[in-house]
């Protein structure tokens, strides 16, 4: 477990969302004041939805937010299971972030083409201001899965044979996800309890390859966290 990780156990998933939302807003304000923009990488999956819905109701200088995706599923652009569709429905369709500041992973092009298209976008963005990530029951994060081998120097990977459907995905790499001022994990639910224990005990998992130089904050509910 990373030395500079800060664990924030909270009673419920709603509390995790509320506290994480406030952290994101505070970091956005600071990034905008110091660097003029807030470059945020969104997490996929279902856990972040509560945070996105809360963010959508807040007041911040949205004109300075720049959005990236940590990963995307190779599905049609309007498919309900796309991480971009979930982010649009819960946040991006409700706040005035300029469209040219939302960098969608064009996973409908297929893994290789989408990864190639996104690499220069990520290269120009680094370091990110904040990266949001979830945690899978097998220790994956973004679309970095156990047993998958990638070129460690790549900024964006094409992913095949994902154990979590769909099989084809695109993922920002551990190297690029770690190149950020701040990194937040959002972990809730009893189904994550075992993998959290393994992670904390130092197991060799994709989530453990995310090693930002700065702090790493884990917002976690009581269902997923066991002291
Ligand atoms: C995805 C996500 C994936 C997700 C974890 C946790 O595309 O599925 O990027 O890494 O964050 O699988 O998913 P839940 O939040 O739905 O448990």
- Main β-sheet: number of strands, strand sense, barrel status? 6 strands, parallel
The outline comes out as: globular
Rounded to an integer, what's the Rg over CA atoms? 16 Å
Give the count of structural domains.
1
Side by side, the strands of the main sheet go 1-9-8-5-2-3
Percent of sequence in beta strands: 15-25%
Question: SSE order in H/E notation?
Answer: EHEHEEHHEEEHEHE
Would you state the CATH class? Alpha Beta
Oligomer: single chain
Number of helices: 6
CATH-level-2 architecture:
3-Layer(aba) Sandwich
How many individual β-strands? 9
Give the end-to-end Cα distance, rounded to a whole number of Å: 14 Å
Uncertain runs: none
CATH topology description: Rossmann fold
């Amino acid at each position: 477990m990373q030395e500079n990780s800060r664990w924030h156990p909270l009673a419920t998933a709603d509390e995790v969302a509320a506290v994480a939302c406030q952290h994101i807003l505070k970091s956005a304000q600071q990034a905008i004041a110091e660097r003029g923009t807030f470059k945020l990488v969104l997490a996929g999956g279902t856990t972040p939805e509560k945070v996105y819905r809360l963010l959508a109701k807040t007041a911040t200088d949205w004109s300075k937010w720049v959005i990236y995706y940590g990963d995307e599923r190779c599905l049609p652009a309007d498919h309900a299971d796309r991480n971009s569709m979930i982010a649009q429905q819960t946040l991006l369709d409700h706040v005035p972030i300029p469209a040219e500041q939302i960098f969608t992973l064009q996973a409908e092009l297929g893994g290789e083409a989408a990864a190639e298209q996104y690499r220069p976008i990520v290269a120009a963005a680094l370091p990110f201001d904040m990266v949001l990530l979830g945690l899978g029951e097998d220790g994956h994060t973004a679309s970095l899965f156990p047993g998958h081998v990638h070129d460690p120097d790549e900024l964006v990977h094409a992913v095949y044979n994902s154990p979590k459907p769909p099989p084809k995905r695109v993922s920002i790499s551990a190297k690029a996800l770690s190149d950020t001022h701040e990194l937040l994990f959002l972990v809730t639910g009893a189904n994550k309890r075992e993998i959290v224990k393994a992670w904390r005990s130092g197991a060799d998992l994709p989530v453990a390859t995310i090693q930002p130089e700065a702090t790493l904050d884990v917002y976690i509910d009581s269902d997923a966290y066991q002291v």
